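Appendix B. One record, verbatim.
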Amino acid sequence: MTMGDRFRALRQNPVARLVLLVFGCLMMISAPFVGMIPGPGGTVVFAIGLGLVLQTSMWARRRYVHFKRKQPKMGGWADWGLRRKSAKRRLERDKSVGE
């Protein structure tokens, strides 16, 4: 069993999902404080926290999709930053249409 398989199996456990959700929220809340330290730390901490929250919360995913529909350029950057499969599909589709 690879590490990715273990993480996927762990995310199916309701207690682990709650812990990941709370940890992601704490990371997003702490991002402004980490941002006071020199360097891009606050951005990285916020992105990791957002990724954890989006993976574990259906409510957050629905809000994210709503945000992407209203702000397609910003949603595209967020997808690229989170390495989402939908961003890769869109890039491939745009490349094939452009040819």
